[in-house]
Protein 1
Amino acid sequence: MSQSTSDSGIDVASFVEEFNLARIGQYVLVILFIGFFLAPLETGIMTALKTNEAVARTIPLAPPTGEGFTWGNLQFALEQLSGAFFNSLFMAIPATIGSVLFGSMAAYGLTMVRWRGQMLFLILFLIGIFLPYQAVLVPLARFWNNIFPLASMLAPTFETLPVVQDFHSNLVPLMITHIAYGIPICTILFRSYYQSLPSSLVEAAKIDGASISKIYRRIVLPISKPMFGVVFIYQFTQIYNEFLFAFTLITGSDTPEAVVTLILPAVGASTSGIDFGIRMSAAFLAAIPTLIIYVAFAEQFAKGLRTGGG
Amino acid sequence: MADLTLDAVTKVFEDGEDEIVAVDDVSVEIRDGEFLVLVGPSGCGKSTTLRMIAGLETITDGEIRLGDDVLNDVRTQDRDIAMVFQSYALYPHLSARRNMSFGLEESTDLSQTDIDERVTEVASMMGISDLLDRKPGQLSGGQQQRVALGRAIVRDPEVFLMDEPLSNLDAKLRAEMRTELQQLQHQLDVTTVYVTHDQTEAMTMSDRIAVMNDGRLQQVGPPLELYHEPTNLFVAEFIGEPSMNFLSGRREGSSFVTDRIEYPFSETVADAVEDAEDVIVGIRPEDVAIRDEAGDDPAHEFEMTATVVEPMGNENVVHLEFPGETTGTEDLVAITEGMREVGENESVTVHLPEETIHVFDTATGEALHARQLELDPQALRL
């Protein structure tokens, strides 16, 4: 009797002890990592809500208190950025849709349709991914300014349109550039997805009498919805955050057609120094569109990653 | 309606430097309304042949004709065919109804009302009327199979192609679908080419069977003809379950001699064998008779030991061995009726009736003599 109780006591104790140590270790690690990743965000948001004086006096992580709290920074940053927001979205949304759609079409043509010389084209697409942006900046600028001045050609048309102004035509070359440079990576992403689809689907549609383009529109396009989510998020973030092409093709941060990434470095800077409150507000605001996209496409994104295999 | 003709069809796949001949000089004529089963082990080229008929593979050499039209350069989309895939290949994002109407929308000018009418009609024929609004993911394997068949039937094509359509079903459902598919085909009277590796499906469903091996056509004929008059060793072994017994040995005079036995040939057989040296004698398990005591044909009776008995209820499968050194492999398999008891390790008298044996040339595999049939040859072409 006594033997059995002492036995079971030892068992439980040792079990609990081991269990706790592992658990505690895990939680400590998780909390450390959460802190590590969230601290900069916390600092940013807190600084955005502080007056200049409070920024100087308090530690960055601490929340603003009493006199130190202000909405002014956010208001000012929003005023500064509102035009740029429109410009960025006006350029990035069509550019994203364009590159994703063309990428998907190219991947379909390279994966599910058989024709001669396919491999050569695939290699060209692969090269496109590894082409360094810096190498094409000068030719690109010369092309859009001297050889094919699309912006100035479109300006009169843009003037007559509602909502947009004539200067918005300067965003069109940037949009097309992004579409062109986005196609290779989108193609490769879609390609791996299409390779994982059973080829009998396309064959069945062929036997049902559907043409190559009809098979894409009625079968492949609807099936690749989850992959569209993934590539759309990725591509939108890339284009929206891109700086180098924007900097080259748009004359500067003081022009009305400047995109968010061009204006951001200039917001809050003045001869008297940098206003960190304003700068953090602007950075926080600039990040919102990408956050919205992630939340909006979260379900598709998860599905796409699960089924994508790419 | 027209006949489908394969004329010396060859398919060569190029794999870098190597050339792989998947289908070699296959000629077969499939008559209008006929149910032809292409059967063979995996990798024998049967699926490739089917895919060439569908236009999913190009034809390296030879010709495929539907009636008088050469199909070789006709696009898959323009061939009047329907195909059922092993994986069903239903469009996952479309409802069963839309899956079935897709082909009609793409290949005909029918109005939406007419299409709906035809889909509804075929659906009720297939017993899937109440499943039409479900997507493939919400259907069971058997239901998906029916939708896939319905999708083919609704097209009302010249030719049905079926690529192992039943192999993803469980055994019971497969047997049911086998009968149903056969009835459907009779009812619709559409020329059908059916690919399978399952010889039971081939035997039970077909009007004629075409056996393929290594890309070559081995024999084409009605099921019973293939069963009783195989033209070579491969067909003899492939058709029938359990498969035919083979004893390999030599012809000495007018007798067949192995290490264990001497088996005298009758005049008819000896004439057929002529002067072939190395021969293989084949006999179907159901023709191997097990007797308790010697009968009236002592020359063709042998003492053997039953090593394993597999009772199936209606019949027993008995594995038999010739006396002497045990080789570990049984020498003959016999099927006896279920009520006849044979004990394991029991010594029995085995009768190999001379009129039931097949003789093959060992070197070429060609049949030299097929079993004699009391049947009228016409009866084979049921």
Note: Chain B has ten helices and 21 strands.
Protein 2
Amino acid sequence: MNAKACLIFLMSLLSAPAVAQGFADLGTDAEGFAMPERGTTFRFPDDHGAHPSYRIEWWYLTATLTGEDGVDYGVQWTLFRSALAPEDGTGWQTPQLWMGHAALTTPESHFVAERTARGGIGQAGVTAAPFVAWIDDWEMRGREGRGISELSLSARGQAFRYELDLAADGPLVFHGDRGFSVKSAADQASYYYSQPAYEVSGVLHLPEGPVRVTGQGWLDREWSSQPLAQDQTGWDWFSLSFDSGARMMGFRLRDSAGGFTSATWIAPDGTTRSLPDGALSVSPLATTEVAGREVPVDWRVRLPEFGVDVEVAALNPNSWMDTSFPYWEGPVSITGSHSGRGYLEMTGYE
Amino acid sequence: MLLDVRSVTKRYPGTDAAGPVLDGVTLSMDAGQTLALTGESGSGKSTLLHLAGALDRFDSGEIHLDGVALSPLNDTERAALRREKVALVFQQFNLIPSLTVQQNMAFHARIAGRDDPDRLAELIERLGLDGFETRYPEQLSGGQQQRVAIGRALALRPRLLLADEPTGNLDETTSATVFDLMLDLVRDAGAALFLVTHSQRLADRLDRQLHLSNGRIA
Amino acid sequence: MIRATFLALLSHWRKQPVQFITLVLGLSLATGLWSAVQAINGQARASYAEAAEQLGLNRLSTLSMPSGPVTLDTYVALRRAGWQVSPVLEGRLRLADRFVTLMGVDFLNYPITVTPDAGQTDLTPADIFGKPGRLIASPETLTETPGAILPAPLIASAQVPYGVVLTDIGTAERLLDRHGEISRMLVLPDQAIDLPPIAEVAPSLVLLAPHGENDIARLTDSFHLNLTAFGLLSFAVGLFIVHGTVGLAFEQRRPMIRTLRALGVPLRTLTLLLLTELLLLAFLAGSLGLLLGYLVAAALLPDVVATLRGLYGAPVGGQLTLAPSWIAAGIGMALLGALLAGAQALAKLHRMPLLAAPGQTGWARASVPATRRMVPAGLALIAAGIACHLLFGGLIAGFALLAGLMLGAALLLPPTLALCLNLLARRARGPVQEWLWADLRAQLPGLSLALMALLLALATNIGVGTMVSSFRLTFVGWLDQRLASELYITARDDAQGAQLAEWLAPRTRAVLPIRYGETRISGLPARVYGIVDHSTYRDHWPLIASGPAVWDRVSEGAGVLINEQLARSDDIWPGDSVALAPGWSMPISGVYSDYGNPNPQVILSMDLLLARFDGVANRQFGLRIAPEDRAALISEIRDSFDLPASAIVDQSTVKAQSLRIFEKTFVVTGALNLLTLGVASFAILTSLLTLWTLRLPQLAPVWALGLTRRRLARLELLRSIAMAGLTAVLALPLGLALAWVLLEVINVEAFGWRLPMHLFPLDWLWLWGLALLAGACAALIPARRLLSTAPADLLREFSNER
């Protein structure tokens, strides 16, 4: 077994059959992992940190940026946690495994790097206060006493690196029912909150040289123990920031039937509306061949309740994350009823 | 003229004191002619025969064989000339011990590219070698071995047959029979015969005789 | 023309089937022995390379700490600085009755893919990373440890090198009881940009560039060089046979060749045809030789593998696999050998005049001046070998010395034999004896090549035999000294170790802890042992050099002992000092012999060891007890402690094991030795057969003068035995010289230890008998042939001028 096989296995948990459906009500699954429960109140800063009793968790930051050269860029910084058992501790045999993904997208190029680490030895982890999420030398570090509202972010790979400063310009946003985000008709769910309104500035180091950039960032925090239902094959996830100041998060979980959609409308003042299955509709407009498979990189996204009918197009259709668990993730531009920029993530396209 | 030897001189290295083996020898032979060269041991007659057969080189003079001058020829050309035109019968028989009678007889003709089974069968019959075809030389008597050698020579249909004491290793009776047979076959084939012998009796039966003494034709 | 001529040439072999078989067999033997050695070496080298590949040693640089293990903190610090490194913790783990190398890696970052063999249950990350973890090993390793009580389930994977058990680093540190330790770190190929220098992050780490050959390949180099030298010797001896038969075949076909040329086949064509024939025969023999080589290699491989594993811990698979290059090399050697052996004959053919000049000498009759020229040539070769050794030193120069000595002596053999025969002839009584010696002398040039082969084979036998026996004698004595404790015991862990020591103290004369730390000395992995002051060491330890008050100095911590290998390789002796780690040198008080260990080793006081090394395991003890109490104590320990059967080892068991490994080490040498001798006897036979064709003219007059054929045959036999016996006598000094070189030069260079030379006259006597037997066997066929020669055939020699 090598690292890659390991990770594929771990990530496949995301779409693995929920073995212990019957235990969902008890709050734990058969292996003792905790299960998200509706109505749980978040406690900060603790909930910015890791939840080792849940099977999976991530800190997922995307940013749409514009350089002083006028070129559009996208940046991704993600830390995944995956637990083999609902325990924490120190030493090699701690059952917490970590994986980091970093990407830098330009209209022409898409740079990707990946890091993996074992928990318990200090190589990777997340502390709540002061907030630090790290793997190797990659860091997302909160300013002392400011939770996650002011962050410095860094990562580097073989051909790129970036250092960004982020400052939140709005409150945290809780998806679904006060952060209890349902993922299927069968009540698979996760805890899910975001900070969708970072003002970002910093420097991207590209092979051609450094570029100063400014733009907008969006942080997703999510943890759960069995997020996908048995027949769900993948998802299409959108985080859109409109020029009007409003934002929306929407996803579709694809399955053998019509799929499961969910969306959150975020007004310019930060107030939210969670929308149930079916309120959001997404349909591919065009596909492109990436890494030997057809991936839709042009979408029609409609949220009739808020008059949204937009076309979402990839900045760089080749934003393929050639990592252990490959997927598509990249910045998009929005035209139609609303205009703006955002991020698109698609998994499960074989 | 089939063979034309002009003023040929031959020395062996390191034998200067004894003078040349051949000293300005001149002779000629026509096609179909038979010639006997007599002389005492060491008179140079075998050497002259070797020279005529392009087996060895001479120091001066010239030999023409069927119109071809021998001295300018290189080893390969000399080998080709031997293969094509000259057949040899030696006192020592010189059969190939690992080949059968039939294979030995066919051998020279075959390497010259003139394999003729009918001719071979005829020769085997005339040489009285019926029933010995699959024997090896060592299983034959001396007379039989020499008959095989004669057969090998004539199977080639040579222009010139060189024979060096062909019956020297045979007893008198056998010697006479073998010699008669050889002479008959040579005449029938229309070949020329250059015979080296010390036997006046054999020499008398040929068209011409020459006597070699101290390297000169007497 | 070509076809007919070629068939005529080939027809010779139909008439001479024995000659044909001899030629093919000779070349097959030569190729076979050479190929066998190559197959064995190739197999071992491939195993090393595979192991290096699988362990990531050949492509990746490694980082390690010269003073000991890398700490987990250092690893994390490097990681947090952005360096992509992958940790490896390595140690010895006992499975059933043998040790394996346990290699702990972080599977999340390990750059080499290891997948379980088909048919194994699927592994989940929880299996790998959790407790008890999984042990992954090659199926071969698994089959060799049947019934072992395993600390974790075993998974078979052919991708793991033999003798290595791969596991997660978390499992490894638990099983090895080395928590938080990392032996080395692999520097992964894809590093990020703008990284800080490693020296800034972790100043004391040492970066080793990727190396194609690992420690094992380097250690075993000398072993393989030894084998190669033997293979080459066998091949050379085999070529003597080929030379003999090819020469004979040309000689016998000389009249045929002359006739063919007289009949007009150009010399060029003939030469080419003979060359073609030779190459065809070589190809045939080469193919046969490969088959033979494969069989020999397959038969010897288990012992070689046992040696390599036992002596070096080298991971060598026991399954012989054949590379295409091996086949090509084998055939190539056969063709080259045949050309080499036939070159003289072909050259002679090319120079041969069409007409035989009177008194033409046969190929086998070298002229007297040629024999005389051998004296300066032989002396020059020996001098060159000695010069090479003196000027350059090292293992290769050592072998050059051997080669010079052997070849020079071989060249000196014919003149020496001629001298002996002259002396004998002078003392001869009666005409028959006179004729016998004269005849022998006349035959000497024709036989000399075969006799040289015999000389080399015999001398090698004596030399190698002396070395092995000397080594054995020394080794046994050394084992007696070194293994002074009656019992050796290994606890499960440190806690049990402490318990055991306490419990054992009142029940034994002494409990001697065996504890060590690992370091690198002169770039090699080395162990530093700590000892308590006890008379066992003072009385028994096999010191070969010591300064004043050596044991007092060691127990005071004022000096250390080093093993002979280290002393010789670095030329450091009592009075000098040795660097045990950066910034830590100790004066040397003594040097001890340490056979069978390829690496440096140091002994110092226990206090010093514990002060300098962290986390030294305390699990092994030597127990001094009255020998008769052994059984009782063993059963008492078993009753009181939860220990596997293999944890308590009797002194005699250890000795037996060590001796077994030792014996296996030289099984291959012995087998090659014997095969070489066989080949040499065969060479004599072929030479005698070659000469036989030239014998009749020489024997016929003797026969005519009144000797019976029976007597002549007896004399033939006697001649051959005399020659072989004389050669064997001359081989003795050469063999002893060889033994001296092996012990004083080759062993020191190859293994790092010098051994005293012991003499074994009984072995020589046995070998001498063997040589006489070889001579007799070789002459048997010619003698029998002579007996059955008809008088008429002998008479014909007179009637036929030849």
Note: The CA atoms of residues 167 and 176 of chain B lie 8 Å apart.
Protein 3
Amino acid sequence: MKVVFPDHLLQHTGGEREVELLAVNFRELLLALDERWPGIEEVLAKCAVAIDGQIYQDAFLEPLHNDSEIFFMQRIEGG
Amino acid sequence: MSEAIDYKVIGTRPIRPDGVDKVTGRAQFGADLNLPNMLYGRVLRSPHAHARLTRVDVSKALEMEGVYAAISRADFPENPSDLGKNIMARDKVLYHGHAVAAVAAKSLICAEAALALIETSYEVLSPVLSLDEAMADDATLLDDECFTKNLPETPDKPSNIAAVMTLSRGDVEEGFEQADVIVEGDYNIPMAHQGYIEPHACIANINESGQGSVWTCTQGHFEFRALTAKVLGMNVADLKFIASEIGGGFGGKTTIYLEPLAVLLSQQARRPVKMMMTREEVFRASGPAAGTHCKIKVGARNDGTITAAKAWLAYEAGAFAGAPMGPGAMAVFAPYDLENFHVEAFDVLVNKPKVAAYRAPGAPQSMHAMESALDELARKLDMDPLDLRMKNAASEGTQAPYGPKFPAIGLKECLEAAKVHPNYTSPVPEGAGRGVAVGFWFNVGMQSSAEVHINENGTVTIIEGNPDIGGSRASMCLMAAETLGVPYEQIRAVVGDTESTGFSNVTGGSRTTFATGMAVIQACEDIIGQCKSRAAATWGVDEDQVEWEDGQAIPSPGVNADVKPLTLADIAGNAAKTGGPLLGRASLNAQGAGASFSVNMTDLKVDRETGKVDVLSFTAIQDAGTAIHPAYVEGQMQGGAAQGLGWALNEEYIYDKDGVLENAGFLDYRIPVASDLPMIDTQIIEVPNPRHPYGVRGVGETPIVAPLAAAANAIRDATGVRINDLPLSPPNILAQLDNA
């Protein structure tokens, strides 16, 4: 699956904007990312994430597929 | 998943359940509750916009007869969060009106007199009042420990720029090389207030052991409880928060100001304490919308295809970090399918009140800049402004600037509706100008809970955890009626307190009809499951041999059972024999909120002698997904249009050189009144959100986004002069016309 980081997270990924990884759900993905970039899980936990076009504020249990597209983004709230 | 067809109840317009009590004055708002032995709390506020608070002594106030409690920074836990420091100033005051102490007394007059006895000393500092001033290298700092976040490298010195954010795709400079036409603009919008009619108010009644209740006007009593407990270091379980009726919030009542003060005063006095902000305090010390400075550059080919776009967006955070630069940055280009763009946004501290959410926070400001620039681009290209937008419009599958591909969205449907709308095809009235603009908001889901109780006669009571600001009780009843198959009139919805229903996030972000509606639907489905089980037991058949249709249990086709259908009333009336009362419930973290787009158009006339603007017509077209109660949806669209026009034409915070707000009242802070506005035409577009059972998108935020640019573009059309800075007030218009 393709995982894409916005500009403001690149400081945590050593400048890498996009990575390919395998994970069966979002929790596993976070663990895999944290193994690659220790400490990033804490940062990503404060982000929203779009999985295949759907935005999740908390995607902890969401299943992922091999061809999923995952974009981390700033959380949205509103008035 | 719904195709939004053949609903029996959804889409109807029943009378609002809270209407009679509100128009007859019976509804209980924040300040309406009174308790025996109640005291009145008042706040002492800073006379300086920026100063070190060197001394606060409340002892003389406490000695005054009739005063029962007095608090200052010494009464709060150490190591406060920014929220805690905003509630009560610690070592510095950071805006004129910042709270420095509070008292509770037997009367308001006594409390006011006690404030005069509080002794304070300040070391006055230079106030930082503009974005340019705050972002300068040699700026006076508000916070010596504020280091800019999100930079590639950790900065070695503090700054008033609390955070930056960038978004980019493609090669912007190459994109501008490909452009035949380029437009650039520089746009300023001052701080503006939500202007809710009801000032902040609450009553706390806390006992000696720190347990008690708080009655308050709020957009979210669960989150108010959590924030208050956090600021005071208390246990949330010790506090019950009860939401009053609410006279408007628009985002401004998603955070706390008075509640921790009332709790501490009540705890100290051992009596109930009521606190109410005056209108002046609301302006000076609650959370307005961020002032902004936005720069936009857009390039396009002669056929209208945008080849590149660039945005620089600076947002005033007020005294503490947290301006809505993120959503503003993600929204600025969201309506368009762009290959090359770059957005840079800044969250900047200034000596003004800490900003709060205001409908679609951050988007009206940034999109005013983009939609104004697009208007100029259309003029340069000699192209219809709606055609230019349609040429570049995002649709299902478009990669949004903030990352994901859009699912089904309704922007093109809104543009198509605008193009053939009579208010667009008719000639522009003589001497007037016409402007159009697009609006957008993401919408959110978040956590909601709901319970559905079936009363013994088959009527239904819904308990939800979201204060009803924009008609959510009616929309919950409609969705429950549709799901259960019973008449709307048999259903009542009530807002439970924090001890009587499950957690729900705030009523905000256009989430309540979407997310809490999902919870209500699921709770009704829970009821249906229980009713089928009860009917099966009554009939002596298997549960899977029972169906639910039109509000009654019936045997499945082919089931050989000589039985009469059982209505909800039948099953409820017999509940004692089949397992007890019927109670359905659901709690969820709703995902799949659908983005909402709008197109607004307006005809305005400018009096060139006085600079006064008359709004001749205003048309709001918006994708609601499915309109559960169309009259409420139209009301949201009209309310957003009115607020957006106010922001565009007159509303602004005006500060003097010392950082004192000069127009802290509705006489000088000019919101639109009924006579300022025409009837606002609305057209609801329905492109169902595939992630909601009935196709709901949020509708409350998007309506305020487009009016700012629509008005600015109409004034450009009417006068031939582009005025980049808001508000388009008579003095500003006259000055710009004189300079043209």
Note: The helical segments of chain A are 26-36, 40-44.
Protein 4
Amino acid sequence: MQGNVIDYILRKMITIIGISKTYGKVKALDSLTLEIKQGEIFGLLGPNGAGKTTTVKILTTLTKPDSGKCFIDGKDVIGQPQDIKKIIGVVPQENNLERELTVYENLLIYGMLHNVSEIKRKIDLILKTMELTEKRETVVNKLSGGLQRRVLLARALLSEPKVLFLDEPSIGLDPHIRRELWQLIRKIKIEGRTVLLTTHYIEEAEALCDRVGILSHGSLIALGSPSELKKQIGEYVVEFIDKDGSLISEICHSREEAYEIAKRRNDGVTIRRSNLEDVFVKLTGERIIQTRINQ
Amino acid sequence: MTSWYPIFLKEMLHFRRKLLRMGYIFSAMIAPIIYLVTFGLGLGKTVRLAEGGDYLTFLLPGLVAMSSMNNSYSWVASALNLSRLYFKTFQVYIQSPIKPSSIMIGEVLAGMVKGLFASSLIIAVGFTVPSGFSINLIFLITLLLNCFMFASLGVITGMITKSHEDTATYSNFFIMPMAFFSGTFFSLDRIPLIFKPLIYIMPLTHTNIVIRKTHFDLEAVISLGVIIFYCLLFFILGSRLIKGYNE
């Protein structure tokens, strides 16, 4: 019995072995290797252009890699795409709902495409779970951005997928709507589904993910739980403004060390807990958000 | 339930909404009616056909063929291009466990409905003007095949174009010349011998030949064979393009 539980916990739902993908002269993925366990929320974190969406596109059969292999639930993504499509749900970065159709029509067509049994009952159930029942007959175009995201999530869950891909699920949403969406994603975890989430929001990765992989220029540069990654670089950060007006951050391994550094400065010193942004900066010398703005 | 049905249903839901906006019906009718008035009721009085009969009776089947071509083709090409490149809704099909041929069938059937709808408007107008215009079984079979053929060609265009502007370019280079030079407005006998091979490559030429027939003769059988060949060719090519979809 105990052995079975351990097997279940350790079971790999997604296995990526050395996948590479090049678009023209740009190397989107460079020999990426990764394993994601069954039932975990795994976050791929990195700035735009790091290779997050390419990874999702390959795993969801939209894009073929130049080299490498990947498996979902033991099935070859490249060799058995039809089997893969039966067990995945996708919330894409760009809203791809039928905007001139109603919420119900969108779900109905998706359910029929995925051969969902008892489709009308399941649509009613998912609308209730996602608190969308009142919007059932509303045309998607007339919904707010947050509600459209919720419909995307409802659509992806309608076929009861084993693996759910969320590509930048809260991009462009207001902070309070983002938090509502996080609550819904946590519900999905309770149902035992495996979730692969891509984000460039540090807060989102820390709030939702059991483990995080940090991508930079198509390569995985760090892997572990948010707390493990933060521990590796140091759990405290001392921040101050230098003579040139630049923000300086110093990472420390203990609170005492942080106080020592702070004492040496006169004023304007802040001590805070480190976050995944600090991990990224430490490893790459770049900032996730800044890189995005520059792009 | 057949796996092409959700794709067809989605297109029909969009189509129903467009029909409710009355502007669509008028836009589908406007070009053929302009041709009908200009060439048929206006210039037509001065046209003498080698095979005899009045020009309007000759013109109306050609306008039906042209209208079915334009609507089947451009609806599918444009909708597929937009859903693939801009709205990204085509991704939903690709990520669904259905065969590429099911996507093809759904799109083509939807294109056929749109083509048949536009054609039925012209047919209705055709019966209201004084002419010897009539429809028979050969007419209906040809019309269905024409819609199938150009809806399939629409899928090919929708899958290969790299921007929405490209759709208009393809239309200007292939569809528009076909509309004018394939025997819609004048008899193929009037075309200089040197251009005839080019004219007979065009699929609409064969539709225009068969759609005007009252009985199957050798010419009709050959042209029908060519239409069926193009139907199969375009359908297979379209299915292959969907199967090979890669972002």
Note: The longest strand of chain A covers residues 12-23.
